[in-house]
């Protein structure tokens, strides 16, 4: 007999704009649960397995929240593909963690307009995500009629319906096929800018950071942060350089004290076309896998 449940998606709700409605002050807060979201999308509850796992604004998600979500996704994958409703603010970070530590048929979606808007986009996005989940073979974001790979996806507009896109980049093999804890690790993002504090890297490491991502100038120059980066590398801390420029990625070609090429010789790692938050999440996942291997 054919297992008819093998491609029945599990829908996990975490809050975000898709679940938001206005409170008595007119503020948007995540109040609607998954059953209401399915009803609004015209998806029969009998056609999916669904549950609320979080109910928060994704800008407030911490690593413990993300660990809990990854565990839920991994468990749900035993029964088929998984759809996650998620806030757009940090969706690209969760998408990276899902890709690196879980993999498989996982779709993230959400909304730009709240559930009580006169023309909400969440119901259509949720319908598209549920329809796409059985057909994909790697974690993806389905949003505004577009399907993007989770690896490298980023929010490209604060209000437009087509809110996410991803550059065409090579997706490396997942680091793990089961989640490992991220909580307890710390990777700081430090911005390079005119007048930046040269001691910023030292301050971050002194506060307990396990690694650093530099949101660098242009193709990967770190400017006055160079001495701190060099010291961190010499002390064995991983340092990744990502560009603050939206397109083109990191090209470590410049010399000089703050030049990317000089620091590449010292061991700095380029993030390619990943954004600084994505590079941070990838490094966190790498550190989490190494920590788990050491504890075995």
Automatic annotation (TrEMBL):
It is an enzyme of class 3 (hydrolase). Signal peptide: none annotated. One of its GO terms (biological process) is amino acid metabolic process. The keyword Hydrolase applies. Residues 11-169 form the L-asparaginase N-terminal domain. PROSITE patterns: ASN_GLN_ASE_1, ASN_GLN_ASE_3. Its EC number is 3.5.1.1. Residues 186-288 form the Asparaginase/glutaminase C-terminal domain. Keywords: Hydrolase. The active site is at 17 (o-isoaspartyl threonine intermediate), 17. GO terms for molecular function: asparaginase activity. Pfam families: Asparaginase (PF00710), Asparaginase_C (PF17763). Substrate binds at residues 58, 88-89. Belongs to the asparaginase 1 family. PANTHER family: 60 KDA LYSOPHOSPHOLIPASE, L-ASPARAGINASE. This is asparaginase. The gene is ansA.
